[in-house]
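User: quick one
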Amino acid sequence: MSVRHKVLLLDDDQDLLELYREMLARLPSQPEIHTATSGARAISLLESEPFSLLISDLNMPKMDGLQVLTIVRRKFPQLRTAVMTSVVDTQFRTRAYAMGIDLFLEKPNTSQEITFFLDCIESLLGREMDGGFRGVQSKSLVDIIQLECLSQSSSVLKVTNGALSGKIWFNNGEVIDAESQDLSGEAAFRKILSWKTGNFEILPADPERPRTIFNSYQGLLLESAQALDEAQAQVPEGESAPGPEEGAPAPASESPLAPLARFNGVEFVMTVRASDGKFDSWSAENPEQISQWVRQTMQRFRVLGDGLQAGQLSQLEGLGPQCHVALVSKADNDLCVGFHRSLSQDLVRETMSKIATKWAS
Amino acid sequence: MGFLNLLTKRGSQGATLVRLPTGSFTLDPGGRIVASTLPRSFPAGKVRQIGDLVLSTFQAAREAGIPLTELIADYAALKLTARELRGGAIIFLAPRSLGQK
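Assistant: Done. Structure below.
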């Protein structure tokens, strides 16, 4: 039995809301339409019951659409969001997409545009029905792969984990290929399976994809699980295990941050937990003070970004006469890497990108 | 076309949508703005907030033993670059466009 989607329309113009409600109610999926004339009201509604889609205007008094989206993306990460606005400005489009919206549409003015608008919304609701993997935290990657195989699907599973991304190709319920960074085939499959968190997206099937994996999906999952168990057993409790194909495990006495420091020009490495300030450091001279600076600085720049509606803070770099530093975040953790002052800014950026990728994995 | 025109908002009273500015401003060591090329439409409160954050970040970095002369914050939709100027700072703001690295 199909479930009726709930769509929440947010616009400060009541007349427009009524028009959109009538238009959307005629979609083939016959969604249930709710409306709100203010951001605060919309957020209250979202808190009170589950919705499939929020369609928001941008230009509104008191709380504008970007402010609403900032809050919604954080509080309801699984909610599909679309912006529908008469503000024709590429900057607002960029900022809205930077916040993770699914669609940015201009308010329709012609019958053709209305048809296009309705098609887009219907397609988005359809994606919600077919996919729905984004933000799923109760399902592991193994569950999702098993679902694809058991349902005899032909599709491409795109997985992103921080700066990393990978794809797994399915054909009639069989895993036929995988790709991640510079890996392919079974090595890439095992690499992707080693990620503990991330986002999933089901893409259309790619029937032309050549087959490189001939093992059954049960065999692949079993081997990956065994490799992960072995790797987990070789590191102290509470620390994350390296990927199974990353070679020999680190010696017991080596800091888990040491592998991140094996890049040219790295002087120190530090991770700081944003929630409580707990940190690990490798080779930092005054780790207590630096960790406090890292935690405070990242927190304050994130707040600034939210206030400006400038999207996610992807990286912070500092250049100095004694050393350079680069900071990135992942989930609740901040990573700070100190570089030798002789490194150019471009080299700092390039090296930090590699370190962040390794850290995320 | 009268019906279709209804779909476009007839002006929004008190709307607060603010563009991210392109430009720079200079702060003296006391945090006062001494020069600015930012558009007037960008709220002064936001400019002060950015300036205070940059100056305090430089100050805190010095206290942590990692003195900095330049700071670059990369947001998805904005790049903020700050250079230290004898206790003050010059801060550049540059919004990003879609797909720009």
